[in-house]
Sequence to fold (152 residues):
Amino acid sequence: MRAKEYVQTLSRFFVDNPAGKAYYEWVLSKGEEFEQDPCSPKCRDIMHEVCSGERFKVKECYYNAWRLAAAGKRNGVRYYEGWGSGIIPTEHAWAVADGTVLDPTWKKIMGRETISYFGIELPIQWVTKMTVKKKMVEPMLFLYWKEKVGKL
Fold:
């Protein structure tokens, strides 16, 4: 199942929940879809250029993507949160540069499988501000929606 299809399925569970429904409608209207191999040569080249020598950890996608986007913001690297779907759809974070997904987390475990991504770019300055405030990197897509769009 592609990541966007998974989000469409999730949205159906919130028909009677106004806040949940509004959140998923926002995600579906603003989200961008990507599909690619996280180990592609272009991906590796950009990650090497931006973060030469950096070590990224499995199961720390939010931290990995934040580090990559913060280090590469001068090179146009942007931070995304949403869902990724290789084998099983799951909440995920990744970076994007020139339309290419930069995914240091899944590149180690997915091999050569094409992955479907669906998510929203979050401003790296806002993510960094929230990371410093909370003293941790965590999923922030719903928090961003609540603060900037949903006004719950």
About this structure: The chain has one domain: 3-150. Residues 3-150 form one domain. The longest strand covers residues 89-97.
